[in-house]
Amino acid sequence: MKLHFKEIPIISRKKLTDYILSETHATGKFKAKFFRSLGFNETNIVIFEKELRKLFKYQEIKDAEISPYGTKYIIDGEIKTPIKKAVKIRTIWIIEKGQKRPRFITIYPV
């Protein structure tokens, strides 16, 4: 099943720069090492966002989970990296209760 929303998903640049690509964040630094090795960094953050939006739009939902905060969706797929390598990743998204726009939560390799 694919998510079909007219609303563009929310992807926080701060989350990408201060967590996913942060080499000093307590848990993010391990993700940063992986994604930076693929060429992602603060200067090409728009490419990262674009790849996440494409993944969200075109890939099937692997799983969904209802929580007290809303519904979380797991979407797996491939993204293209700045070094022209396709990499398999898992993303987590949420549509919070009372909201319509999906929001990016996290990403990691699979």
Quick recap of the structure?
The protein is of the alpha+beta class and 110 residues long. It has one domain (13-109). It is 29% helix and 33% strand.
What is the overall pLDDT average?
A: 94
In the predicted model, the low-confidence regions spanning at least 5 consecutive residues are: none
How far apart lie the N and C ends? Answer: 20 Å
The domain count comes to: 1
Approximate shape = globular
* Radius of gyration based on Cα positions: 14 Å
How is the largest sheet built, in terms of strand order?
A: 1-2-3-4
Q: Which percent bin holds the helix content?
A: 25-40%
Order of helices and strands: HHHEEEE
The count of helical stretches stands at 3
Content-based structural category:
alpha+beta
Number of strands: 4
Let me know the largest β-sheet.
4 strands, antiparallel
Percent in strands: 25-35%
Topology (SSEs and partners):
Layout: H1 13-20, H2 28-37, H3 45-58, E1 61-67, E2 70-80, E3 86-96, E4 103-109
What does this molecule look like?
InterPro entries: DUF6883 (IPR049250). Residues 9-109 form the DUF6883 domain. The structure is a single chain. With 110 residues, the protein is α+β, with helices and mostly antiparallel strands. It has one domain. The chain is 29% helix and 33% strand. It has 3 helices and 4 strands. The protein has helices at 13-20, 28-37, 45-58, and strands at residues 61-67, 70-80, 86-96, 103-109. Strands 1-2-3-4 form a 4-stranded antiparallel beta sheet. Strand 2 (70-80) and strand 3 (86-96) form a beta hairpin. The longest helix has 14 residues, at 45-58. The model has no long low-confidence stretch (mean pLDDT 94).
